[in-house]
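Please, is this right?
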Amino acid sequence: MKPSKKLLLTPLAAIAVSLLSGQAFAADPFVVKDIRVEGLQRVEPGTVFSYLPVRVGETFTDDKAADAIRALYNTGFFKDVKVQSENQVLVISLEERPAISLVDFTGLKEFDKEGLKKSLKAAGITDGRYYDKSIIDKAEQELKKQYVSRGFYAAEVKTTVTPVDRNRVAIVFNVDEGNVSKIKLININGANAFKESALHDEMQLSSGNWLSWYTKNNLYSKQKLVADLESLRSFYLSRGYLEFVIESTQVSISSDKTEMYLSINIKEGLQYKVSSIKLAGELLGKEDELTKLLQLKTGEIFSSSKLTASTTAIADKLGAYGYAFASTTPTNALDREKQLVDLTLTIDPGKRTYVRKVNVVGNVKTRDEVIRREIRQLESSWYDSEKLKLSKDRVNRTGYFTEVDISNEEVPNTADQIDVNMKVAEKPTGSLNLGAGFSSTDKLILSAGISQENAFGTGTSIGLNINTGKTNRTIAVSNYDPYFTEDGISRFTELYTRSSMPLYYAGDTEYKVQSTGGSFKLGVPYSEIDRVFFGIGVEQLKMTTTINTPQAYQAYLKEYGETSLNIPLTVGWARDGRDSALIPSRGTYQQVSLELGTALGDLEYYRGYYQHQYFYPLLKGNVISLNGEFGYGDTYNGKTFPITKNYYVGGIGSVRGYEPGSLGPQTDQYYAGTTTPTGVKSPTGGSSKLVANAEYTFPIPGSGVDKTLRLFGFFDAGNVFDGTVNLSELRKSYGFGLSWISPLGPLKFSYALPINDKPDDRLQRFQFQIGTAF
């Protein structure tokens, strides 16, 4: 018998064979003596053999031929597959798909090339992979979708596939981005009760303003439109329009695909007042208590926001009694003729619930016990929503987390048990604290410190502050343990050495005040938000003088000598009712302290201090913050108040726009070795101070309610005085700034404009600080 090719199947033949079941074979089956693979360039023969449904010595049939072709073709490695037989030798002829040698883009402006390459790599389009036209077509469509999401409706993507050597191809996506399609006009048809401009203010999408380059609010997005329609609905329902409906929306684009037009057709309906509101359902004998929670009153215009607040308050109150899944269903009866609505709130408390477990998640560094010791909801006890809210606030007040969320989860196969999940998002607790500013006299002013607020996840804080400036030098080591005892008694210790040159003279390096000492303080809690403090310290003060020491310091030397010992006692009280120590948005903070220089040392004085902060949240992440501080000091032995205990005001944390500590009484600087004034004055501080601040904080437009990056405007007023406070001498400033919870810690930039500065004041309009400051 002479050689013959008894069987020849291509992918098309294989498909035909698979469909013709029950009919005669195209060729007779035969026993395979050998298998030969032809046409391979990059694929290993072993890979091909692994997909074949037959081995040497086995019988080969048309069905197996079809299976072999189908399996090899589905690998994606081959462009063509042929199966032949020559004298009982099975011959597999293959044509490999080209390999991709290069993926590149042209015409890109809106997107980063490397970022797109990573996206395509995840889809299987990258150097070294096999070329598949279907995947390339999908990539083109995906690129167009990406451009549409950014408003480039006219964007076109064409792919060039260029063969190169060794059966490879270079793929280049040629992009013609065109012009971005911007919203030209938004029409709201049917608005009669409110101005159309007022409705536009409720929407994210707009026809553009001076911030659109950042917010992208003039670029159409279906998701944003859906959210805007819901905002319009809430706007009307909160103002009594119970029958408000959005009848239709139309989105059109200009012929050149650069301008978009939105048309929203609404029907306002009638405005309704509340004629009656009553509670129904299972009230658990607490009808009077629950009725007091209703924010909607008879005779008022109906408000869906007040209704939601009422149902939320009822659910929270029932949650305090253990009903974790209490629900309130409102129903209404409309009297269209009188434009009145009767409301019925049907309450279903559900079953009283136990908390099986409290789970803490999200804490990578912080130990569980640091969080759990702040949680007031006990496991295996009744669910209590008020205790959970208090737990959330207490964890927030530690300052270790940017977010704290609590959710409930039903326990499977039980009717009265839930698990409580507390999810936290940690912030970097190791921080570099910096203060900086610029003045015309001292140029750049810097201070620095290193602190670890949550050392090793234990909840304790350690700090090292170092200042190597020309006029002030400091080395201070501190430690704070909020749970020195299991009962929550806190402990603060500090060791320090500080030297300062209250006035700086060219060529004079002898004049300075040096203090070395330490302090120990305990804080005892007596409620969930109140704590009293007791402390003692030891401090040695040494003043090195020169011939031209200022009069203010000469008086101190005359009464207390060049070396003095101070042993102060401190007592204080603090109430922290804020929702967060890191990013407070509601609540108050107060503290009172008294420092008393005892007769055990050389300084006999008292120094009192009071601070009150108030935070009030507004809509959409806006917060009003108020801060007031008052300090007063004097002696009780008839001597002059020690200048080393003076208060200082100026800079971030007091009155922005002025150099740190520069406000208040001043004294002349003298040329070294003389009593001739240089014409420059330096601050000496004062025995009393008064500071007031107001801030209005809001998220950056377009960032939603992001709390980590915010803008603020402020007004500051304050000063220090020798004794009695004089309100007419308060320095004032206003300005704006940016706050950011950065990886280095809380960061604040501010630019201030002083209002009533005097010629001797030292101004510093731009300031920044890493670390917390009002």
